[in-house]
Automatic annotation (TrEMBL), chain A:
<dbReference type="GO" id="GO:0003677">
    <property type="term" value="F:DNA binding"/>
</dbReference>
<comment type="similarity">
    <text>Belongs to the eukaryotic-type primase large subunit family.</text>
</comment>
<feature type="binding site">
    <location>
        <position position="406"/>
    </location>
    <ligand>
        <name>[4Fe-4S] cluster</name>
    </ligand>
</feature>
<keyword id="KW-0238">DNA-binding</keyword>
<dbReference type="InterPro" id="IPR058560">
    <property type="entry name" value="DNA_primase_C"/>
</dbReference>
<keyword id="KW-0408">Iron</keyword>
<keyword id="KW-0235">DNA replication</keyword>
<keyword id="KW-0639">Primosome</keyword>
<dbReference type="GO" id="GO:0006269">
    <property type="term" value="P:DNA replication, synthesis of primer"/>
</dbReference>
TrEMBL record, chain B:
<feature type="region of interest" description="Disordered">
    <location>
        <begin position="1"/>
        <end position="49"/>
    </location>
</feature>
<dbReference type="GO" id="GO:0003899">
    <property type="term" value="F:DNA-directed RNA polymerase activity"/>
</dbReference>
<dbReference type="GO" id="GO:0046872">
    <property type="term" value="F:metal ion binding"/>
</dbReference>
<keyword id="KW-0639">Primosome</keyword>
<dbReference type="Pfam" id="PF01896">
    <property type="entry name" value="DNA_primase_S"/>
</dbReference>
<dbReference type="InterPro" id="IPR002755">
    <property type="entry name" value="DNA_primase_S"/>
</dbReference>
<keyword id="KW-0548">Nucleotidyltransferase</keyword>
<dbReference type="InterPro" id="IPR014052">
    <property type="entry name" value="DNA_primase_ssu_euk/arc"/>
</dbReference>
<protein>
    <recommendedName>
        <fullName>DNA primase</fullName>
        <ecNumber>2.7.7.-</ecNumber>
    </recommendedName>
</protein>
Length: 504, 553
C-alpha cells in the first residue's frame, strides 16, 4: 500500500481528501472499486498513499475509536452514542451511501478508501499485544455496528448478500415443523410470516442466545431475518479477531520499513490516551479578559484538577518546583495569558523571593516557555506547546514536594477523593465513578466525568437548544480544552449564576 | 472459594518427604509407592512449624523452593493424630478402625481414602479426554486445600501416577478443578509476559445450592437439607439438563452431589469446553430467569420462549407435589400476601384474601385451586384471563425454576470442587449421580429421582466397609487356602505391589458411583477420539483405537 519512492514521501504537501484530485482518479496500482459503503475489510489496501495520508487517516480513525470507547465507558445507550458520534463521523470519517443512481462517484470512493486504509493501518498498529487486539476489535465492532444500523434496508441486504457467509436458510418444511417454537421467538406475527430464517451454530450469535431471541435446537440457532445484524456483526468480529492474530504474526517482517514503525508505534501508544494535537484547536478564547489578576477566579471556575492543584499549591507555598512551573506556565500561555501578564503573575506569586532572585532564577524559564528566549527553533516555534493529557500522564510522575502531573493518576485514591471534595466535587456517584475509572486506568475519563458533573446544567442547556453539537463535546484530552470548554459554556449560557461571575 | 491463604506454586512442596513419624513411615513401609524413597528422618520434631506460618513468607519459600522443609509440616499433622488404641502397632496400610468421633478431614482418614478409594486414574482420564497423557491434563490447574486451610493453586500433573503421588503426599482436605491453560500452570512465571498465560478450555459448570432457595423452602434453612427440599435440586437438574441437551446439543453432562446441600453440573463436550467467556455468559443468560423477590414480580417476555415452555412442562408436576403439598408455601398471612401480590387483578386478590382469612389452615393446594375457581365466579368485572394465566405461570416458575449460582458458569477460569472428594463438613463423598441415557436417547432419571443425599456414603462408612469385606474375605480365604496354593489369589502389579483382585472401591457403597464415572468417561473419550479422527481425516470411518484395559486404576 505504501509506495517505495522517496520523492513521494519528501513531498510534504498538505493532503486533503479532495474528490477532484487526480491521485484518486489515476491510481497507478490497483484501485479498489468500493461498491458498498460498508466493508468487512477483507482485502488489504493495494494503492499508494503518502506518508502524511498514512498518518492523518490513522489519527482520524483513532479519534473516532477513542470516542466510541469513551461512550461505552460512560455507559451511553445505543441512541445516545449514535447521536454523539454522528457529527464526529461526518467530520473525521465520513462514509456516505450510494446515490439512487447507483453510480459510485469519486468522492465516495475517496471516503471509502480512507475508511479502508485507516482500518488497515490501525490493524498494524494494534496487532502487537493481545490486549490491544482485543480492544481494537471491540471498538471496530461498535463502529461497524453503528454504521450497519444506520444503513438503508436495501443497502444492508445488498451488502450482506455480497459477503460469502455460509448461512443456511431454514427450509419451508422445517419452518412448518417448528412453527410453534419460531412463533414464540419473534414478538410480531408479521416478522414470522414474511421474514426468512437463518440456521447457524449457536456460537455465532451469542448475544441473541443470551437474550433468548432465537430458537435453539441441538446446537443450532434459528435466527429471524430481522436479527441478522447480530450475525453480521459476529461474523465481522470473528474475522477481524482472526485477521489481527495473523497480522501479529506477520508484524516482525514490517520492521524493515523503518519509516512506518515509528508512526505505528506512536499511534498504538496514543490509543491508551488519544493525543490532542492542538493544531486545529485554538485554546485561547479571543477577547476573554485573561490577566494576572483574574487567574485566581479562573482557576476556581474553569481549571481542570491538575491545574487547580498546581494553582492551589502555588498559593499555599508561594512556590512551585520546576516541572510544576513548566506545566502550569505552558497551560497559562495556552489559555491566552500574555508573556507580560505571566511574568507579573509569577512575580507576585513568588512572594518570598526578591526581584533579583526572581529575575535571575525564574523569569528566564517563563520567557523560554513563550519562545521569547532560547535557540532559533524555540523562538520560531513560539516556545513549547501546552502539555496534553497524554504528555502529563506519560512524563515522570511527581516526587515529594512536586505538584505537577495528573491527580487522577498520581494521587492515591483517598487523597484524590479529598482533593476532589476540597474542590467542590461532593457527589457520591461521581466520586464512585472516578474511583472506578482510576482503577481501570481511565484517567481522562475520570477527568471528563468531573467536568460533566460540574457543568451539567450548562451542558444540558446547550445540548437542548442545539447551540453545541457533538464535535464541540468530544472527550477532553487536553487541559486547555477543559478550560476553553468550561469558559465558553459559562459564557454562552446567559442565565448562569451571576454571583460567581468571573468579572467580579 | 473457601480459602484462608492464597498461595501459589512457589510454595509447592516439591521435595520428597524429609521426615516421617512412626505412623507415616509404617504406611510407607507397607506401601512403597506411597512416598518417594527419600531419606527419612525418624521422629524428627525440630523442623515442625506451623503450616500457615510456613507459607506466609513468600520470598523465603520461592528463593529456595526445593530444599524448603514444607513436608515436615504435613507429617506433623499426621503425627498429631490420635491413633485408635485398638489398632495394633505397626499399623496396617490404613486405619483399620475409625472411632465414631474422628473428624472427617482427619489426615489419616483422608490419606487412607486417597490411597485406597479415590479413582485417580479415571479422574485423570476424564480431565485428559483420552488415555494417553496430553496437554489437556498437563496444563490443567488443580487447586488443593491443604489441612489447615492453606490454598495451593496452579498445581498440574502430567501423568496419572504423578497426580496420585502428589495428592497422597500433600494429603489435601479437598481439591478443585480449574481450566486448561495455554501452558503448564507451573511454568506460568517463566513466560515472557505474564499476560500471555491464559485459560483456554474448561468444562461448562453449574452450581445449584439449596441455600439459594431459603425464601421459598419451608422445611429447612441454611446448610441443612431434607428429602423434601432436595426436590428443588432434582427439578433444577432436569430443567438445566434438558436445555443443555435439547437446545445446545451437549451430550456429556455429569451431575455431582456437592457433599452437603447442592449439585454441581459438568458439561464435558469438547464444544462446551472450548467456549470463551462470552459464550458462557450467553448460556448463563439463556438459562437465567431473574426471579422476583418478595415484592417484585418476575419479568419474562410473552409469548414464552420454547425453553421456558419446556421448563414449565417439566416443573408443573413438581409444583403440585413438592411445592404445594410438601412445602405448603402459603400458610401464613405474609406468605399468602406475597402470592396475592403476584396476581394481576385486585378484585380477585381481595376476594381470595377474604376467603383465606376466614379459613385458617387451608392448604396451599386448595389455595392454588381457589385462584381459578374464585376467578371464574366473576368477582372481577374485567378480569384479564391471559394475564392471570401468565401470572400463574410466573408463580410456578418463582417457586420451581432453577436458581443457579451463575458466576460459576460464566467464567472460563472458575474453579469447582472435584468429584469424589470428601465434603469436610459432612464427610460425604461428592459422588456423581448415575443418570444414564436410554436407548431412545432420552434420559433415564430414575437414579436422580431415587437419589437420597442423606444416604450418600461417608468416608468413614466406606473405609469401614473395606474392613468388613476384607475380614470376610480373609475368613473365606482361610478355607480356600487349605485346598490350593494361596499365591494364585493375589496378583502383583509392575511395582511389585500386592493388589487384590477386587479393587477396594468395589467392596464399598462407592461401587455404583465409580462404575458410573468410569462409563461416563469411556463415553466421553470415545466421542473425543471420534471427533479427533474426523478432524484429522474427513472421510474417516471406524473407531479410533480404544484401550479399555487401561481404564483400571
Ligand atoms: Zn428440607
Amino acid at each position: 500500500m505504501f509506495r517505495q519512492g522517496d520523492s513521494r514521501i519528501e513531498a510534504k504537501r498538505k493532503n486533503t481528501i479532495n474528490p477532484k484530485r487526480k491521485q484518486f482518479a489515476n491510481a497507478q496500482y490497483q484501485q479498489q472499486e468500493y461498491p458498498f459503503r460498508l466493508s468487512i475489510y477483507q482485502l488489504p489496501p493495494t494503492a499508494d498513499i503518502t506518508l502524511e495520508q498514512f498518518e492523518q487517516w490513522a489519527i482520524d480513525r483513532l479519534r473516532i475509536l477513542a470516542e466510541l470507547e469513551a461512550c461505552s465507558f460512560r455507559r451511553r445507550t445505543g441512541p445516545e452514542t449514535s447521536d454523539h458520534m454522528e457529527p464526529l463521523l461526518k467530520k473525521y470519517l465520513p462514509l456516505n451511501a450510494n446515490p439512487a443512481s447507483g453510480v459510485v462517484e469519486d468522492f465516495l470512493k475517496a471516503e471509502r478508501q480512507k475508511d479502508h486504509y485507516s482500518h488497515w493501518i490501525l490493524r498494524l498498529a494494534f496487532s502487537k499485544t493481545p490486549e490491544l487486539r482485543e480492544r481494537f476489535a471491540r471498538v471496530e465492532k461498535r463502529l461497524f455496528e453503528l454504521r450497519f444500523q444506520k444503513s438503508y434496508e436495501e443497502e444492508k441486504q445488498a451488502f450482506v448478500s455480497s459477503l460469502d457467509f455460509d448461512w443456511e436458510t431454514v427450509s419451508v418444511e422445517e419452518r412448518a415443523e417448528f412453527a410453534e417454537q419460531l412463533a414464540a421467538v419473534v414478538p410480531r406475527r408479521s416478522d414470522l410470516e414474511d421474514g426468512f430464517w437463518f440456521k447457524v451454530d449457536w456460537e455465532r450469535v451469542p448475544e441473541l442466545v443470551q437474550e433468548r431471541k432465537v430458537f435453539l435446537r441441538r446446537g443450532k440457532a434459528y435466527v429471524p431475518a430481522r436479527e441478522q445484524i447480530s450475525m453480521v456483526v459476529a461474523e465481522f468480529t470473528t474475522r477481524l479477531e482472526k485477521a489481527l492474530e495473523q497480522t501479529a504474526r506477520a508484524l516482525p517482517r514490517m520492521d524493515e520499513d523503518d519509516r512506518l514503525m515509528p508512526i505505528l508505534d506512536h499511534i498504538s501508544k496514543s490509543f491508551a490516551m488519544p493525543d490532542a494535537a492542538l493544531a486545529d484547536a485554538e485554546t485561547a478564547v479571543p477577547g476573554a479578559p485573561i490577566t494576572h489578576s483574574t487567574i485566581d477566579t479562573l482557576a476556581r471556575q474553569h481549571f481542570p484538577m491538575c491545574m487547580k492543584h498546581l494553582h492551589n499549591t502555588l498559593r499555599k507555598d508561594s512556590h512551585l518546583k520546576y516541572s510544576g512551573r513548566l506545566q502550569y506556565t505552558l497551560f497559562l500561555k495556552g489559555i491566552g495569558l500574555s508573556l507580560e501578564e505571566c511574568l507579573v503573575f509569577w512575580r507576585q506569586s513568588f512572594k518570598n523571593k526578591t526581584d533579583d532572585q526572581f529575575n535571575k532564577e525564574y523569569s528566564y524559564n517563563v520567557k523560554h516557555s513563550y519562545g521569547e528566549v532560547g535557540g532559533d527553533a524555540n523562538r520560531r516555534g513560539k516556545g513549547y506547546s501546552p502539555y496534553s493529557c497524554q504528555k502529563i500522564l506519560t512524563d515522570a510522575p511527581p516526587g515529594p514536594g512536586q505538584a505537577h502531573g495528573c491527580p487522577y493518576k498520581h494521587f492515591a485514591p483517598d487523597s484524590l477523593s479529598s482533593l476532589l471534595q476540597a474542590n467542590g466535587v461532593d457527589d457520591v456517584t461521581v466520586l464512585k465513578g472516578v474511583r472506578e475509572d482510576v482503577v481501570q486506568k481511565r484517567y481522562h475519563i475520570a477527568c471528563n466525568r468531573v467536568f460533566e458533573w460540574s457543568h451539567q446544567a450548562q451542558l444540558k442547556k446547550v445540548k437542548n437548544d442545539g447551540s453545541w453539537t457533538g464535535t464541540d463535546l468530544e472527550v477532553i484530552v487536553h487541559p486547555n480544552t477543559y478550560f476553553k470548554r468550561s469558559y465558553l459554556l459559562k459564557n454562552s449560557v446567559k442565565d448562569a449564576d451571576d454571583s460567581d461571575n468571573m468579572e467580579t | 472459594m473457601p480459602h484462608s491463604t492464597m498461595m501459589d506454586e512457589d510454595q509447592t512442596m516439591s521435595n520428597p518427604l524429609p521426615s516421617s513419624p512412626p505412623f507415616a513411615s509404617s504406611i510407607a513401609q507397607q506401601a512403597p509407592d506411597t512416598f518417594d524413597s527419600s531419606p527419612r528422618n525418624e521422629g524428627n520434631g525440630n523442623e515442625q512449624v506451623e503450616l500457615e506460618k510456613l507459607f506466609d513468607d513468600n520470598n523465603l519459600a520461592s528463593e529456595d523452593e526445593f530444599s524448603y522443609p514444607t513436608s515436615s509440616a504435613i507429617t506433623k499433622e499426621i503425627s498429631n493424630l490420635t491413633i485408635p488404641s485398638s489398632s495394633p502397632l505397626p499399623l496396617p496400610a490404613y486405619p483399620a478402625q475409625i472411632e465414631s468421633g474422628s473428624r472427617f478431614s482427619d489426615p489419616d482418614i483422608m490419606l487412607a481414602f486417597y490411597r485406597r478409594l479415590f479413582p485417580f486414574r479415571i479422574l485423570y482420564q476424564w480431565l485428559n479426554h483420552g488415555y494417553k497423557p496430553s496437554a489437556d491434563m498437563a496444563n490443567r490447574e488443580l487447586a488443593l486445600t491443604l489441612q489447615g486451610d492453606v490454598y495451593l493453586r496452579y498445581q498440574s500433573y502430567a501423568a496419572p501416577d504423578l497426580l496420585r503421588k502428589d495428592i497422597l503426599r500433600q494429603n489435601p482436605a479437598r481439591f478443585e478443578i480449574g481450566p486448561v491453560y495455554n501452558t503448564n500452570p507451573r511454568d506460568r512465571k517463566s513466560l515472557h509476559k505474564t499476560s500471555s498465560f491464559k485459560p483456554v478450555a474448561k468444562e461448562l459448570c453449574f452450581d445449584i445450592d439449596l441455600t439459594d432457595y431459603d425464601d421459598i423452602r419451608t422445611c429447612c434453612k441454611g446448610a441443612s437439607i431434607c428429602l423434601k427440599c432436595w426436590q428443588f435440586a432434582t427439578m433444577a437438574v432436569k430443567v438445566v439438563d434438558a436445555c443443555l441437551r435439547e437446545d445446545f446439543g451437549f451430550e456429556h453432562i455429569m451431575w455431582v452431589y456437592s457433599g452437603r446441600r447442592g449439585v454441581h453440573g459438568w458439561v464435558c463436550d469438547k464444544r462446551a469446553r472450548e467456549m470463551n467467556d462470552e459464550k458462557r455468559r450467553a448460556i448463563a443468560g439463556y438459562l437465567g430467569v431473574v426471579l422476583g423477590s418478595a415484592d417484585k414480580k418476575i419479568n419474562i417476555r410473552r409469548p414464552l420462549h420454547p425453553h421456558l415452555q419446556r421448563s414449565l412442562k417439566i416443573l408443573a408436576p413438581y409444583f403440585q407435589k413438592d411445592i404445594l403439598r410438601d412445602q405448603d408455601p402459603w400458610q401464613t398471612t405474609d406468605q399468602t400476601d406475597r402470592l396475592l401480590k403476584l396476581l394481576p387483578d385486585q378484585a380477585l386478590s381481595q376476594a381470595l384474601k377474604k376467603k383465606w382469612d376466614s379459613a385458617p389452615g387451608r392448604s396451599s393446594t386448595s389455595k392454588w385451586k381457589d385462584i381459578d375457581s374464585v376467578a371464574s365466579s366473576g368477582v372481577s368485572a374485567n378480569l384479564d384471563e391471559k394475564a392471570l394465566l401468565a401470572a400463574k405461570q410466573d408463580v410456578l416458575l418463582q417457586y420451581t425454576y432453577p436458581r443457579l449460582d451463575i458466576e460459576v458458569s460464566k467464567k472460563l477460569n472458575h474453579l469447582l470442587k472435584s468429584p469424589f472428594v470428601v465434603h469436610p463438613g459432612t464427610g460425604r463423598i461428592c459422588v456423581p449421580i448415575p443418570i444414564s441415557t436410554r436407548k431412545d436417547g432420552k434420559q433415564d432419571w430414575s437414579a436422580l429421582d431415587d437419589f437420597n443425599p442423606l444416604t450418600v456414603p461417608t468416608v468413614i462408612e466406606i473405609l469401614n466397609e473395606i474392613d468388613a469385606w476384607d475380614s470376610r474375605e480373609l475368613a473365606n480365604q482361610a478355607q480356600v487356602m487349605d485346598e490350593q496354593d494361596s499365591s494364585q489369589n493375589a496378583v502383583h502389579d509392575s511395582n511389585g505391589q500386592r493388589q487384590d483382585k477386587v479393587p477396594d472401591f468395589a467392596k464399598t457403597a462407592l461401587k455404583p458411583f465409580v462404575e458410573y464415572f468410569k462409563s461416563f468417561v469411556a463415553d466421553l473419550i470415545k466421542a473425543e477420539s471420534r471427533s479427533l479422527k474426523r478432524d484429522r481425516d474427513e472421510d474417516g470411518n471406524g473407531e479410533a483405537e480404544m484401550r479399555p484395559e487401561s481404564m483400571d486404576f
